[in-house]
UniProtKB/TrEMBL annotation:
<protein>
    <recommendedName>
        <fullName>DUF924-domain-containing protein</fullName>
    </recommendedName>
</protein>
<dbReference type="InterPro" id="IPR011990">
    <property type="entry name" value="TPR-like_helical_dom_sf"/>
</dbReference>
<dbReference type="Pfam" id="PF06041">
    <property type="entry name" value="DUF924"/>
</dbReference>
<dbReference type="InterPro" id="IPR010323">
    <property type="entry name" value="DUF924"/>
</dbReference>
Amino acid sequence: MAANQSSFPEAVTTLINAQSLTAIFELGLCWPKGTPPTGKDWAKNTPQSTWKSLCWESLLALSKFSVDNMPDLITLLPAPSSPEFPVQALSLVVLLDQAPRHLCNGVNERWRNGFFDVLALRLSLQLRDLPSNLRIETFPRWEEAGFSFAHWCQASTLLSAPFAHAEDLALHEKILLPVVRERRALTEKYYNVIDAFHAAEVAKGMTMDASEDTLAFARFVKGGWPDMEEISEVVFWYCRVSEAHVPIIRTFGRYPYRNRALGRESTEAEREYLVQTENFGVSVNEDDARKIREDVEKGVWTPLA
């Protein structure tokens, strides 16, 4: 689905601009450059009302386009060589990938997984296709902009999220897992620590990303954030949460807990998986699921509202 290269209209550019993207950046990395976040800082939740006030109108404006007729998202950003590019590019990824996870529920959950996830992945692939010196997933690019390694840890995690959310094993294996492995290794080296959980996996000869443990993702998330001051512990937790996506995609080829949101019928194996996880990740009720299935069958979308 190649993006249309036409320009965004003023109705979009007045909403998604340098000022709004800078504000959205602070939803993810709300600590000044001179104040590296701690693990406990990272775990703080942003109020739902803040997400809505900063992101909802922009999501509505983008929803007026179809996926196939979407202008090039990267045109909403400054030139990749600009000092402002890393912050604004990350902010646009957060708008497309994270904001819908806070704001698109019920019937709107189809928009999260079937529309905005597609856009977030498209933009993320474009960012990775930039020349190596301009790519924003690397620490040097953030260090040049005056951010700490701790800031980069969080930026890196947010930038890799669209690949974890993609129902595509090839992207998991070629992009997500190498990124996670590098983030873990760099974090261990920078803080002179060891990811004990991962080290134990290695000692047993079976790491999470290579396992068939489809229940691990639900288990980790239900277990909650690590109650640690050290940011390295949060980095390591996110690494294993990211890796825990892979067995699910390897086994089912998709995320069973999204089936209702996307109007899909679950297989017998997927229904058993959902029973085992106590319907973890399923937030669409039967009435909304029925409406979504009707829309999918008709080839229409209930407007985002």
